[in-house]
Amino acid sequence: MSEKELVSGNEAIARAALDSGLCLGVGYPGTPSSEILENVAALGGRAEWAPNEKVALEVGIGVAFARGRSIVTMKHVGLNVAADPLFTIAYSGTPGGLVIVSADDPGMASSQNEQDNRRYAIAAGVPMLEPSDSQEAYDYTIRAFELAERYRCPVLLRMTTRVCHSKGALVRRPNASPAPAIAYEKDVQSNVMIPAYARIAHRKLRAKLAELARFNEEGEFIHEDRGSDELGIIATGISYQHARDAAPEASVLKLGMTYPLPLERIRKFAAGVKRCVVLEEGDPVLVEACLAAGVKVEGKAEMYRFGELSVGRVRRILAGDTTPEAAPPAGKPPQLCVGCPHRRTYEVLRDLGCIVTGDIGCYTLGVLPPFEAVDTCVCMGASITTGLGMRHALPEAEARRVVSVIGDSTFLHTGINGIVEMVYNRPETGHVVIILDNSTTAMTGMQENPATGRKLDHTPAPKVVIEDVVRAIGVDHVDICDPTLDRERFAGILKERLASNDLSVIIARRPCILAAAKARAYQLGGK
Amino acid sequence: MGKVVNITVAGLGGQGVLKVTDILAETLFDAGFDVKKSEVHGMSQRGGSVSSEVRFGDRVYSPMVPAGETDYLLVLDATQVEVNLGKLRAGGVLITPEDVPLSELENPKAANILMLGALSRHFELPEELWLKHIRRNLPEKLHELNIAAFRLGRRGKNAGR
């Protein structure tokens, strides 16, 4: 037993991974998940940023094929990118423990949607654990590695913003779970998903899930607070903590493993109370599963599907209160920093009346005053491709106004494919892509990426040169400029390219003002 | 079950809201309380309003302070008082820049720690415990400046109203 410390859920996961003999942590930065791998590295573990979540999961799968323990971290929308390997590795599984952290963002503190990734556990058929505080984040991570090895299946560890970023007490158990020795064993029936083997693997997966449901019924991940027989609450994740404050008198059944569900245990609990309410943030996943199994429970009103839950909202849910909620007073909205290199770029785009397809990063804030220069934002990498679609569809005069803007890290994430599409299926009016290269992954907290020349821990790394990449794919023009220093040159190039039918990439390069000082310190050898 | 005390710290991005809350949470934790601390990162925080919460007591469940149940509201920026006032319970303690001797401060960057000093007057904890966590959370070259700011705030003007 170690000393008690006050840590966030993300810090707790990093500690658990190290106390489980982690071989490699890999992921792509995304709020609220980013601190997990940063902490793994800071505590002396091996961790790396991949260019995107699909790559990260595949690297993690490789580690686990070699029987290493691997943790793969991402935000909820990252799992969409990694869904392709997820659905098939669920069939084959890996001999080494593979734990995938999905950090969901109900309420969208820093996201483009509030999708509920519990649906992925059901859709792919992988067990899911949901911690409700830092200690559970630690304990569940360790058990996730062990369960992944015992059942030969990846485990989804679902976090939410509040569990990731809230701090609470943690007691570590050093060397809690020794990792098996690295060893590769050829096993093509399990590891090569050609149809003949995959048909067998799918049946095996369903049998594993039935076994896991029986395991979940045994109760290791179930906690019951026995209170009044009048009111019973079934809760998961952070909802449990709110429930204890909102209704201290109630009986509460907390589920830590939320797929596959312990339906018999739920049935027994619900039968023992007069009224049984399911408390869950986001989609009605748990309540629908209970109702489908014929368990008499009630869920929350539709209005509470939106946003985070809180003690106050849980009180309202329990009281059946569906009157409109008071909107909290609006604070000062976020904005691009004073001195941010994107500011000048957006001034020019605004003044030229461009139709700007945007992407994911700080620069999405260009949609707000005083710029109001972003027209669309869908997902990572979508700026280039949606811009191409608009160029194909719009009449010529409008098509010529379409510009795609994308950040350096986002370009390397899934923007490269868009450049390939642009060269292959060239719009008649050509296209203009501006890569806003501020030499960092700024929005998520200034993480490194393949173009910064530094690894996750800020030590030197080989550098992917963005201009070489786009030239090699075959665009007509590649220009590099700094709109902050030379606005006229930038505006001149942009006007010329918009008037032509050429394919043009303009790299607007100037370091993020917040990251520049850090980058200088890394260069001098400090961290 | 002992009462849980709720503290909310608010201000603007870059003013050190999260730093103050970390020091506060760690000091209370070190004093033997169960503590939870909650904050939000990411896009909504870029240059905009920021707030962070600490709850402490014998046993704390939710990390978020229920609406209107803040016992101590510390607001680091005068423009942010109005939007955060609804978080304070009736009879709760409000501390704003008006309540601290800002003009006596050597370096305005330590204003957050000055205000933490003013808040510290409301809790019966030894000064050395606060200083220990100020030192732990700040680089060494800033210790002297911030400890002086903390003591200035702790000495008080008319801390709290």
Layout of helices and strands:
The complex is a heterodimer of chains A (527) and B (161).
Chain A (H helix, E strand, L loop, with lengths): L4 E4 H11 L4 E4 L7 H8 L4 E3 L3 H13 L4 E6 H6 L1 H10 L5 E7 L13 H7 L3 E2 L4 H18 L3 E6 H5 L1 E4 L17 H4 L3 H23 L4 E4 L2 E9 L1 H9 L3 E6 L1 E3 L3 H9 L3 E5 L5 H8 L18 H8 L23 H10 L3 E3 L24 H12 L2 H4 L2 E6 H17 L6 E7 L28 H8 L3 E5 L5 H13 L3 E7 L3 H11 L4
Parallel strand pairs in A: 2-3, 2-4, 4-5, 5-7, 6-7, 10-11, 10-13, 14-15, 15-16, 16-18, 17-18
Antiparallel strand pairs in A: 1-8, 6-12, 9-11
Chain B lengths: L4 E8 L4 H14 L3 E5 L10 E9 L12 E6 L5 H4 L3 E8 L15 H10 L6 H11 L5 H13 L6
Parallel strand pairs in B: 1-4, 4-5
Antiparallel strand pairs in B: 1-3, 2-3
Helix pairs in contact in B: 1-4, 3-5
User: What's the CATH H-level homologous superfamily of chain B?
Assistant: Pyruvate-ferredoxin oxidoreductase, PFOR, domain III
Order of helices and strands of chain B: EHEEEHEHHH
Number of domains of chain A: 3
pLDDT < 50 runs, ≥5 residues of chain B: none
Biggest interface reads: A-B, 41 and 37 residues
Mean pLDDT of chain A: 96
| Biggest beta-sheet profile of chain B | 5 strands, mixed
Q: What is the number of E strands of chain A?
A: 18
Q: Which CATH class of the largest domain in chain A?
A: Alpha Beta
Architecture of the largest domain in chain A, CATH level 2?
3-Layer(aba) Sandwich
Strand percent estimate of chain A = 15-25%
Low-confidence spans of chain A: none
Mean pLDDT score of chain B, rounded?
92
Biggest pleated sheet of chain A: 7 strands, mixed
What's the count of strands of chain B? 5
CATH superfamily grouping of the largest domain in chain A = Thiamin diphosphate (ThDP)-binding fold, Pyr/PP domains
Distance between the termini of chain B: 29 Å
